[in-house]
Amino acid sequence: MAARQRNIAVSEFFLKNRHLLGFDSPHKAILTTVKEAVDNALDACEEASILPDICVEIMHRGDDRYLVAVEDNGPGIVDEQIARIFGKLLYGSKFHQLRQSRGQQGMGISAAGMYGQLTTGRPMRILSRIESEKRASEMLISIDTSKNRPDIHSKRKVAWRRRHGTRVEVELEGHYTRGQHSVEMYLKQTAIANPHVTLRCVDPGGKTRVFRRSTDALPPLPRPIKPHPHGVELGRLIQMLHDTPSRTLKRFLEDDFSRVGTTTARRIIERTSGRLSERSNPRRIAHARATQLHRAIRHTRVSAPRTDCIVPIGEKRLLEGLRKELDADFFLVITRPPSVYGGNPFQVEIGIAWGRSGGLALAVDAKGRIRRKHKKAKGAQHAEHADQAAHLLRFANRVPLLYQQSACAITKAVAQTNWRAYGLKQPKGALPIAPMVIFAHVASVWVPFTSESKEAVAPLPEISRELVLALQEAGRQLAAHIRRDNRLEHEYEKRAYIESYLPHVGLALQDILELSDRERNRTVARLDIILHRSRKS
C-alpha cells in the first residue's frame, strides 16, 4: 500500500475534477472558455488604462468540435510569461492582493486550455505583442498535467496587425447554444455591467453582433489593501508571524495589517495580559501565545478597512448600461454604502428596468440589443398582472453569473424580499411576477463563491442583509412609480370619457334650452375651452 502512494499535481487533480472549474458539460464548455478569456482581457486592459476592445470568434470545426478565439487590444504579455500564464494552473498576480478584480485564482484560462487538450488533444495557440516589439510572439502550449508545468510545442515571431494585444485560441468539444445560457447573453450582460467596453461576437454561422461602449471613461483602478485584523484566522496569523520581516510585535501589527496604528497595536498587546510585549519577536511566538494574540485582536476595536480597494459600477454608469442594452419604460439604480464581511470590504448595487408591456422577455435582436417581447393583455389586464416572473441578472465584480442561480445569495435575497408590499405578485419563496429585470451586483476584494467555478455567491449574513436592504429601497421607489403610473392612467381614462360624451352633452343642452344659433355656438366654444384645459392639465 505504501508503494502506491505518490504526489498528485494540482493540474492532474482538476483534470479529473474539471466540473469544479465549470467544465462539467459540453454546453458550458464554450461559455466558460469565453468567460475566462474575456475576464482576463478586461482586467489587463483596465490595469493598462486602455479602453477594452474585445472580439470573440466561435468557429465550427465539424462534429462537436469548436475553435474559440478571444482577441483583445490589451498591453500584451512578455515572452517569458506567456507559457506560465497559459500552461500552468494556480499561476497569477492577483491571488495575494486584496483588491477587486475579475480573476483571482490563476486557473481560469489555463483550465480552458487543459479542457481543450483533454477533449481534442490540441494545444492552445497564443498570439501576443507588446507595443515595444515589432513582431508578435506565437506559441502553441499545452499543460504537463503530471507536473503542472507548460509544454511549449512551438515558438516563433510573426507579423500581426495589432500594435499590442493578445489572442487566445482553444479547440475543444462543446455544444453551441442560444438563449439565457449562451455566449451571446453573457456578452450582453457584460456590456451592461461594463459600459466602457466594446464587444464583438462572431458566431459559428458567421453572423457578427457588436455591443458598443456608451462611455469613454475607464473605471478607477482599485488600490490593494493589507489584511484586516478581524478577517485573519488563527492559522493564517501564525503563518504571518513566521513570515514577517518585522523584528518586533508592534511593528508586525502596524506593517502587516490595515487600519492598525501605534495606539491600536498597543491596545492589542495590552489585552494579552502581559504575556506579550511590544518588543516580542514575532517569529518566536509560540502557538499558545499566538492564540492569546488572536483573541486579543478579536476583542479590540479596529476601524473598518479602506474602501478604495473596491470600485462599484456607479449609479450613472449602471444607468447608462441598462438604458443602452435594455428596452424598458422606467429605470432605477440603488448603491448601498460599503460594508465588511470577515474583514473584507464589499458593496452592493441594485438596478431595476420596469416595463408595462405585459412581459419583459430578454431576447437579442439583429442589432445586438435586448428587445422586449410584448404580450397582449386580455381585456383590461395590466402589465403588473402578467404571469411572467421577473428576470434576474446576477453579477460579481462586474462578471455575469449565469449558472447555479438557485444556490446564489442574490437569488435568495430577491425571493426573501416581500414584493407584495410594493404592489407586485409573488409566489411564496420565488421571484416576483412582474414585467421587469432585476440587476444585482456584488463587488468585493474577495467574493465568497460557492465553488471554484465562480457561479454563485455564498449566502453570508452580511452580504444577504445588504442585498435585502438595497432591494427594499428599490422596491419602495418602484412602488411610487407604479402608483404614479396608475394614477395617470386613471386620469387619462376619465379624460377619454369626457372627450367621448362632451359633444353629446352639448347637443342635448341645445335641445333642452332651445338655444339660438349664436348662443349654441357660444356654448360649444365654452365647452371647447373646457376640453382644451382638460387636455392641457
**What about the largest sheet?**
8 strands, mixed
Q: Assign the structural class, choosing from mainly alpha, mainly beta, alpha/beta, alpha+beta, or little secondary structure.
A: alpha+beta
- Low-pLDDT runs of 5+ residues are 357-385
Order of helices and strands: HHEEHHEEEEHEEHHHHHEEEEEEEHEHH
| Rg (CA only) | 30 Å
User: How much strand content do the residues show?
Assistant: 15-25%
The CATH topology name of the largest domain reads Heat Shock Protein 90
Separation of termini? 90 Å
Q: Can you count the beta strands?
A: 16
Number of helices: 13
Write up this protein.
The chain starts with 9 loop residues before the first helix and ends with a helix. The longest helix is centred in the C-terminal third of the chain and has 53 residues, at 461-513. The protein has helices spanning 10-16, 26-47, 79-87, 108-120, 183-193, 234-243, 249-256, 262-270, 287-298, 315-325, 409-416, 461-513, 517-536, and strands spanning 53-62, 65-72, 124-129, 136-144, 149-158, 165-173, 198-202, 208-211, 330-335, 339-341, 344-354, 361-364, 370-373, 391-396, 399-401, 436-444. The chain is globular, with a radius of gyration of 30 Å. The chain contains 13 helices and 16 strands. It folds into four domains: 5-177, 2-Layer Sandwich (Heat Shock Protein 90); 229-298, Helicase, Ruva Protein, domain 3, CATH 1.10.8; 315-477, Ribosomal Protein S5, domain 2, CATH 3.30.230; 485-536. Strand 12 (361-364) and strand 13 (370-373) form a beta hairpin. The protein is α+β, with helices and mostly antiparallel strands and 537 residues long. Mean pLDDT is 83; it is low at 357-385. The strands form three sheets. An eight-stranded mixed beta sheet has the order 5-4-3-6-2-1-7-8. Strands 9, 10, 11, 14, 15 and 16 form a six-stranded mixed beta sheet that branches. The protein has a two-stranded antiparallel ribbon with strand order 12-13.
